[in-house]
Protein: Importin N-terminal domain-containing protein
Amino acid sequence: MTPTPSADSVAIALSRLTVPDTNAVRQAERNLEALGRSPSCIEPLTHLICSHPSPSIRQLAAVMLRRYLPDHWPSLPPPAKASIRAALIPRIPAEPAQLSRKAIVALACDLCSLDDAIWPELLQLVATLAAADNPDLVVVAFAIVDGFVDAVNDLVVEHIPALAPLLAKGMEHPVPKVRVAAFHAFVACAGPAAMAKGDSFPALEPHIPKIVAVATGHQDTRSDEFGRITCGVFEVLALVMEDPAGPLIRKYFESALEFAERMFVSTDVAPMARAAANEFLVGSATVRPKHMRKLGAALRLVQSACKVIFDNAAFAGAPSSFGHDDDDPDEDEVNAILLSLRLLDAMARRPELSKLVFTEVMSVISRTFEATQNAPPEHRDATVAAGYRIIGAICRGCTHEVTVHARDVLTKLANGAHDANAGFPTRARAIEALGLACEALDDVEMPDEELEDLANISLTAILHGMRDPELFVNRHACMALEASVSLFRDDTTKQLRARVAEIIHTLSALSPEISVEAITAVGVLAEHAVSALLSSEMFKDVVEGIVRLISQTGKTDVHARVAALEAAGSLVSNCKDQSVIERFSAQAISCLDSDDPSCKQAAYSFFERMADSVGGNVVAVFGVKVLTSAIESIENHDTIDPTDDDDDEGVSRNGLGPSNDEDARREYGMYVRTSLLEEKTLAVHCVGAFASATTTDSFMKRMASSPETAATIRSLLRSGCKHIDDLTFSFHEEIRAAAYRAHCRIIGANVMLMANRPELAFGRTELTTDGFSRLAYGAMEDSNVWVTATVLKSLATFIELISVDMVAEHKTAVTDVIRGVLASETACQEPREYDSGDEHFTDDADIEGEDMAALIEAVGEVVEAMAHSLRGFFADDFPSILSEMLEAFFKLSRSPRSRGMVFGAVAGVLLYLNFDKCTNFTPPAPGGTEEEFARKVTDNVAAEILPVALNAIKSMEGKILQRNAVFLAGVIFSKARASNEAVWARLPEALQIFQKILVAGNASDGALIDNVAGAVARILSSKAAPRQVLGDPNAMLQAILNVVPLHNDPTENTTIARTLISVAQSNFDILVSAGQVQKVVSCLVSAALISWEAQKRTEQRIRPDVDDGDLNDRMTGLEDMEFQSLVLILGRIREGLGDQPFSKLNLAPPDAKSLAEIFQCQGLKA
Structure:
């Protein structure tokens, strides 16, 4: 039996925690930990808390008892529990030392969760102390309330209505410290009260003006205490902004905005207060933009933000404000600029505010520039730099406005980059903003010639910046290059080839000090101008430069080496030159032996890209080495816990050595752990890619002559599969997601090999069922929304890979998984925390959209994959699943992005309900057809979702929402029965919306126009559509063909071809009488050629050498039946109109030959 330690011996052990000797402290920690494992520690610790003369010993005793008491409480006899309560509760008001009292309050509040008998005693103590005349005792009362929330916030909710009057009275107390204590207790209670149903938050709500009064009445506005108070005010106001009904918003929003604006623009408040105000304003702009505009706050905030930036213009262009110097002495001024820029960016991203923001910003900048024309050069320079910075901040949000005024904006910024009289920070800011403006133009529909002209304006300025004498400007010119080059839609033009040669020549002349930025720029060319780069006479020099940087091994060359590997990966993904591939790969192999984690990570990323793009050749040559290294990386770091900040033992082994700076040691240890985790994640991805590449024809041919190597690779993949399977239980979400995706790719590859080349398979047939079980378990059991979405996407891919019989075998299990995910707590949990700076407003699309939208999209992909694989066989399960999907989707989707994903998921699934050509379908009812069944299901869905979709199109809340809402509306109209009056009554409204979008033409979102064209085509192809509503079908098709451009990317033409095919199958005469036969034929021929090439690739190998990890990549051309329909339509056009439309195409000889081959294979006259 363990002897009971004396209070004196425990006090001595606790006192050793305060000595400056690290070894003595650690020994004391070990002794106290051993003591705490025994219930005998409770009595001496309680005695020390109540009677020891030293405040630090009383505090440490309370902390230690709080740590170990929960472990022993269940085993204590009732008299011992009563003794602890009787000792601790009276000690709270008697404790004179603040820190000791705080520790005892925390201990007592923790006891509330262990013993319900303590609640009445503590609540009575709070009431007694709150009524005391001594302000110190009143402060203690509110400290207890604050402690309640920290310890047991769920249990305290029911007592909030009783506490609310005490808190309100405390915030009106004449003594400032009492008001502050009551304020903090009020803020602590507001969070759990708002989350709980009932009368808790309504009891607090009338007293909200008092918390603002506490803040405005505080004397020292520069103090940290004022900063914390202001943070609390905005925390409560943010809860008000989330009121779904709206009355609280109308009641408080205007005064809340006024207070936030005052804090934001004031130069005499604590930085924390200004930052809190900024967070509130950013959240308000994101969640309540219409309210802001209606109140006139939006315009005032734009003007205020610009004023803050111009008032601190001297710091706007400084190198430190680019984020390179964390110890900047002018941190307050720089932070004021950053906060203002963030607010402008947030407002610009809202469609309701973007035009106002752009117009007012450009007006303010113009007036400010004009006012400083005669100012001293330094002041004028700083002002111009600040103006450029503001333009850059709003470009990403004001996409439409930047597009409309693109030439003026780019010319203004290009002139700034060329201005030799300006200071170098000003030139750098102009180039930075130029890159952001080009980035805004990247997604818009605009004639190629006009876009290339704009690209040339920006590229000329960027090249000028690369030749600037200041390295600082060179660096930012390299960083802006990508956005400019990406504006060239066609990378085969002579103009771009000439520009690429000029870029490479300029990059080669840059200082070695910015080699990282230079080689990154080469990677940009490999991504966006690969044809021009490959045809350049300097291509060999580029390859040599990359090889030279990868081969460098010095510590100072690590970043350049990593950048070179990334550039090599980008280049080889688009280059089929085997000698270049092998040179890069041979150098990348050496990086696997590097001591620097970033080099090894870059190497794994490189080989993953190689396996996905080049295929089996890389795996055959380098597979053994890469897989061996990857599996070692996976094995070596199995026990790393990224949340363990106290494990310092490995730090000294990495060279830091003993140090008294524990924070530095912990920080370095965390860096090491994070690097190793990233290495493991990339190694997992690499193994999955290599497994997938073993199914390629190139790998099989190589392995035919090297059976020993093939056997080694199979053995390594089996080993890798085992380790990756274990990682699906990892505590680290990124590793779990990577493991599930790699697991899917490994098992999927094995399934394909078992079916086609069983001698090359690396697992048993049972792996198929095991693989499905692992994915199903992960989707059902994982606690993270993002990981669940990743697992579901892998499951959808898995369903695409396995045979129809296997899909049918697992049909019930899949439906159980879908229902389980939709009903699970995982789907309803809070999204991951992002470093978005928006901690109060969970409706932000950037936060909620990332996870919830991914989950919604993934569920839709699984159902779509099942419907696609099983066709009619899945139809009997579909109505109930669709109903559950809709119910869960609308419950989960709070942001425009996730609502858009709802529409896309439902529309994608509905498309697969109509397979009247499918011969193995058994109708669900006697005499019924699948088409009729599809229309019945659609009728049930349409009444609920069609009005919502049409409103979403008109709301202009986001691109994804609008595009997918249009897509869904078109699908519903195309499948609705003629008797469904509720659907067809909405058709005039829908056609009017579609017409407005088509009339807008290139000024609108190009993808949205394509979707509108597709929706109109679906309506035209529907035999159930009422002709009296449609009007003239020829005019409608003419309108479609006028706005839908022919793209340089043939896959885009495939999308358009589908809409034309659907029209032709219903009404062929419309297709050839719209006056644009030439354009119709061009589009259809383009789609036919790409589909024909895709079919030939499929015949040559088991699968194309592409990444099969994403369901969206499963198809590059039309499906078989679509392709046959397309060729028949082309044949009818040629038969009816002769060769005239075909002769005008001016097809290249290879394309003309392919077209003839297509006709011949389909039994038509070549």
